[in-house]
Amino acid sequence: MGSMPQKITTFLMFEGRAEEALDFYMSLFEDAEVVDITRYGADGPGEKGTVERATFALAGQRFMCIDSYVKHEFGFTPAVSLFVECDTEDELDRRYGALAEGGTELMPLGSYGFSAKFGWVNDRFGVSWQLNLRE
């Protein structure tokens, strides 16, 4: 019996907004899918209905997310970001616009020398995204 190949999956920890983020990210990619999702029940330990654990895929890349029922002093940081190569300018503009809504623009859409069009934004949940127009 062969062993499964090792995989490294980006893991996002939210505090009560995981499903909202998941639904939002699903809307940004045509080939997105929720692989599985488990919610907390009435017996906890998290708030009933919040995400105990979810696995989802965006553009063929798998992610995991949870709603932490433990409050913590840290959040997401732009030191780790999701880098998205967009095939068309329309795709880049649409995704950037949606991600910037309620978020923080770190590098507004523009030409920065290393790319014809690029933008960097923290979305409304604090997750950092770099969007690049594929050459």
UniProtKB/TrEMBL annotation:
Domain of life: Bacteria
Gene3D superfamilies for this protein: 3.30.720.100, 3.30.720.110
Domain named PhnB-like: residues: 6-131
Pfam hit, one: 3-dmu-9_3-mt
CDD domains: PhnB_like
Protein name in the entry: VOC family protein
